[in-house]
Design a protein that fits this description.
The protein is of the alpha+beta class. It is built from 7 helices and 10 strands. It has a 4-stranded mixed beta sheet with strand order 2-3-10-7. The chain has a 3-stranded mixed beta sheet with strand order 1-9-8, with no helix packed on it. Keywords: Dioxygenase, Iron, Metal-binding, Oxidoreductase.
Length: about 250
């Protein structure tokens, strides 16, 4: 791993008029988005529709999820690698994660909820669904801005029609004495785009084009928007970077 450096990611605010397609504010924000993705492969984002109450609610639900017995959590399986339960792995002993496929649909979230709570858990279901839909809205705004900036609006429509959303909920336990503190090995994501929202723990590091690592300072009101490997495959002639992170 390279050295940790002080530079921070650019922060882009999504609110008001810059959420109105075609407006001057929209066009200006689109330029900021493209510049950040070209320079860093990612950026920090604040989204006016996302409240502190939702931040607290989704992490309360996350705690409830991880409090379930391991023999219950392992029932979260998927045919797609890393979409189901991952935990208790010797190579990444601090890591534990579960995945909700089709997380913007009530059917997808209820399937997950009923699997882990056979008697139901309406609060978890409604919170996870609302959270997923809010994050999906932000994802779609970014995709549209990039597509319009490059004059390929048709790509946005085709991408939107082919997109399904995975909500992955992750926890890193505290390392024991003498244990390596690395939560997960450095990697890029196979998805088109990844949007990360952290609790107030400095757990995310992002690799720059120069090989250094930026430590991301989390905020309850912000997300990290990252281009994934599928984004690189889609627009190989652009200068986006799929950045490694851990």
């Amino acid at each position: 791993m390279g050295s940790l450096v002080n530079p921070t990611l650019p922060t882009i605010h999504f609110s008001g008029k810059n959420l109105e397609p075609g407006s001057t504010a929209w066009m200006s924000t689109s330029k900021d988005v493209v510049r950040a993705l070209e320079d860093y492969g990612c950026f920090a984002a604040t989204y006016s529709k996302f409240s502190l109450g939702m931040h607290k609610a989704i992490f309360r639900c996350s705690e409830e999820l991880f409090d379930l017995p391991t023999n219950v959590k392992v029932q979260n399986t998927s045919d797609t690698p890393s979409h189901g339960y991952v935990g208790q792995e010797p190579i990444i002993p601090l890591y534990e994660g579960l995945g909700i496929e089709n997380a913007t649909t009530r059917e997808g979230v209820k399937k997950f909820t009923n699997l882990l709570w056979p008697s139901g858990n309406d609060r978890f279901c409604e919170t996870a669904l609302e959270y997923s839909r809010l994050v999906a809205e932000l994802d779609q705004v970014v995709m549209r801005m990039v597509s319009e900036s490059y004059g390929i609006e048709s790509s946005y429509e085709s991408l939107l029609g082919a997109t399904s959303y995975l909500l992955r909920i992750i926890k890193y336990r505290k390392p024991e004495k003498g244990e390596n503190g690395l939560g997960i090995v450095p990697h890029t994501d196979k998805s088109f785009m990844t949007i990360i929202h952290q609790c107030q723990v400095n757990g995310l590091e992002i690799k720059t084009k120069d090989g250094d690592w930026i430590t991301v300072d989390p905020s309850p009101s912000s997300f990290i928007v990252m281009a994934g490997d599928a984004w690189m495959d889609k627009w190989k002639n652009r200068t986006f970077n799929s950045q490694g992170h851990n």
